[in-house]
Amino acid sequence: MAIYLPGKHTSVFRLKCYLLCYALLRKANLRSITKLIFFVPVVTFLLIYYTAFEPSTNTRVVIVSSYLAVTMLVAAWEIFHGNEQDNKLPVIVVSASLLFTALTMTTRAILVFNSRELQDYMAASWVHQIPFITSVFSIIALAFCLVWIINSRLVRSLENLSMRDSLTSLYNRRGLEKVARHLFENKQSNKHSTTVLMCDIDHFKSINDNFGHHVGDIVIQDVATLLKQHLRSSDIICRYGGEEFVVLLPNTDTNHAKDLAERVRVLIHNHRVKDYPSIIPSISIGVAKCTNSQTVNHLIGKADTALYQAKESGRNCIVYDEEFEFG
Mean pLDDT lowest for which of 51-55, 73-77, 120-124, 219-223? Predict the structure, then answer.
């Protein structure tokens, strides 16, 4: 009886590792975890009963093996179907190792259930040795792949930071180039229905000179917030530089693009900066639509030319590229 206690402690340790792994690793379904935890007192009671009151090594092996098999099956399912967008390879490795260990545990439970009573657990046959080895392998795989996944997340996080503007959390120019390139290369996306809005905050230098750069930052943040709140989730918004913003409108016809541009202009002009009511922000917008085999940079260049004309026309207005055709 005493020689089986270390095995029970090892099983509990493994169980905690599996529960912790799929709870933290992949944002698992907490209801599954809760249901499994509820059975821990039941399993503990059965182990105590078949140790102290009706000693049976076989029964204890069947109980522990069955519970661990179910735990690892659930862990494998939750890890593989977790909510995090992780590197698939380490996720598959962990899930496969847990599934294989669950299979050996299930086989062990079935064979022990139908065999004669085990007298010396330390002299157990391969039926008990193989599940132990696979369990150790699963823990090693879990530790290795956990580091792998965390490193992948860190790399992804750093890459995301390099693509975002720190002041507004919008895409920066590098991020815009990457997202736009993906948009134009996507065969399911019709790039000929893509429109670009090049927006520039009017008289921004005067705001900085009269109120300070910290107020200028507030104005930029307010404009970014308005763009995020009132444009579509499919639209790509970028702080292109300084007080300039670029908005990519995919799958947008000319009339809808015209309506969106006017909506943005009116929203900005009607907005008031908190604690600075004397600031009446406005933006000038240049609009261009993709035609033929134009690149993203060419499209932005056309929108920038239209923006320059909007500035020359008195600001707080919209100018459309000469190739822009209204429906």
Answer: 120-124
Tens of pLDDT, residues 25-57: 556 565 666 677 778 788 888 888 888 888 888
pLDDT, tens digit, 9 for 90 and up, residues 127-158: 777 877 887 888 888 888 888 888 988 888 88
Straight-line distance from the first to the last Cα atom of the chain, in angstroms, rounded to the nearest whole number: 85
Could you please report the per-residue DSSP string of 162-209?
Answer: HTB-TTT-SB-HHHHHHHHHHHHH-TTS-GGG-EEEEEEETTHHHHHH
> What's the CATH code, domain 173-320?
3.30.70.270
pTM score over 0.85 = no
Residue of 159, 177, 243, 322 marked catalytic: 243
To the query of whether residue 78 is one of the catalytic residues in this protein, the response is no
Give start-end residues of each CATH 3.30.70.270 domain in the chain.
173-320
Nearest to 170 by CA among 54, 248, 267, 266: 248
* CA gap 285, 264 in Å, rounded: 9
